[in-house]
Design brief:
The protein is mostly helical. The chain has 4 domains: 60 residues; 65 residues, no CATH class; 81 residues, no CATH class; 109 residues, no CATH class. The chain is built from 16 helices and 6 strands. The strands form 3 sheets. A two-stranded antiparallel sheet has the order 1-2. Strands 3-4 form a two-stranded antiparallel sheet. β5 and β6 form a beta hairpin. It is elongated and about 120 Å long.
Length: 372
């Protein structure tokens, strides 16, 4: 278009627009447009109401939180219904129903899931649904201390993990099952170091013991092994001494002193004659007073009838007590007797005469209290 024609077109354009707006056909279009706007507004309002209704319906699945912390435990082959039951049992019924609906709506397949899944207080049903779908299992904290026997340890284990008390006890008592980690039922507890650990819920007893052997090997570093060797003991024998020491005294500050007493006896080839070994041999740690008849109990653990150390620990000793044996201060005591004031401490003696005097005072105190 030439500049002249373009100029004429611009001059005439307003007239063309005016004529178009005055055209009846244009007016019809405007009327139709208004009708379309009304329809569009109606549609938008309906959509908005629908979105609001959907938001209200979905709010409990996104905005509400678990009322308490808990674990969802699933075995392979679990269904959505079984997962819902686990949530209801361990957390909350209403919360479980919401998670179950989301799992069903999303077509979740949980049959390959196995493990424990931790739900924190405040977690939404949507988050828990995603957690179960992802299969990201959580570790379980396992703490044990103040344990004497394999049976007691199995009791602590039971209820925490998928394979329960009976499975653990079977492995702890099975010589063949323990050969893989170089252990026997007598000395396997020497390998268990009381502490807090974290394992997956579906860990087997054998897998657990393999991991504990790793912790045991790490604890018994070159420095500790050298100290044990200087005492003429193996690491397991240190655990046996430590177990006797813990049964003799609950006073942590007295344990190094008691440890040296037993080390002195071993060095002099004296019978240990430790009362706790008699209780272990009898199977009753509630005994308050050891009699002469009890000291004749036939058992490899009874240090009144057998020289040297028992074949294994009479309890699972703490790591601190193991170090108390390794670092026991020098002294010449070879006798000890519970103090007559029942403080939990002991009277120590170098000679038998002094020891008997200490023993008579303690026996008189027992008699005065009617303890038999």
């Amino acid at each position: 278009m030439s500049p002249k024609n373009r100029s004429n077109y611009l001059v005439c354009l307003p007239f063309f627009v005016l004529l178009y707006f005055r055209n009846p056909q244009f007016n019809n279009k405007m009327t139709q447009s208004k009708k379309n706007n009304v329809a569009m507004k109606a549609i938008l309002l309906a959509v908005l109401i629908g979105v609001m209704a959907l938001s209200i319906w979905l709010a409990p699945y996104f905005a509400t939180g678990a009322p308490a912390e808990g674990m969802i435990k699933l075995r392979k082959g679990s269904t959505v219904e079984q997962a819902t039951e686990s949530i209801a049992a361990n957390i909350d019924t209403q919360f479980a129903q919401r998670v179950g609906k989301l799992l069903s709506m999303t077509g979740a397949d949980l049959t390959a899931r196995q493990g424990a899944f931790k739900v924190s207080k405040g977690d939404s049903p949507f988050r828990v649904m995603r957690l179960l779908r992802s299969g990201a299992e959580s570790g379980i904290k396992f703490t044990f201390n103040n344990v004497r026997t394999r049976e007691e340890f199995a009791d602590r284990w039971g209820g925490k993990f998928m394979m329960g008390r009976d499975e653990m006890l079977r492995v702890l008592n099975d010589p063949i099952a323990l050969t893989g980690i170089g252990r026997t039922p007598d000395n396997v507890t020497a390998m268990l170091l009381p502490d807090s650990y974290e394992f997956y819920w579906d860990i087997t007893p054998t897998e657990f013991l393999v991991k504990m052997k790793g912790y045991y090997d790490k604890f018994w570093n070159e420095e500790r092994i050298a100290k044990a060797r200087k005492l003429g003991l193996t690491p397991d024998q240190v655990a046996v001494v430590a177990s006797i020491v813990e049964e003799e005294t609950a006073k942590a500050d007295e344990r190094p002193k008691v440890a040296r007493l037993y080390l002195n006896r071993l060095k002099q080839n004296m019978p240990l004659q430790a009362d706790p070994t008699v209780k272990y041999a009898i199977g009753d740690f509630s005994i308050k007073r050891i009699t002469n008849a009890m000291t004749r109990t036939q058992s490899p653990y009874n240090t009144y009838v057998n020289p040297g150390l028992p074949p294994g620990p009479i309890r699972i000793p703490e790591k601190g007590t193991l170090d108390a044996v390794l670092n026991a201060p020098d002294h010449n005591y070879i006798y000890m007797c519970a103090a007559e004031d029942f403080s939990g401490y002991h009277n120590f003696a170098v000679d038998y005469g002094t020891h008997m005097a200490n023993a008579r005072r303690y026996q008189a105190a027992l008699n005065a209290r009617g303890i038999k």
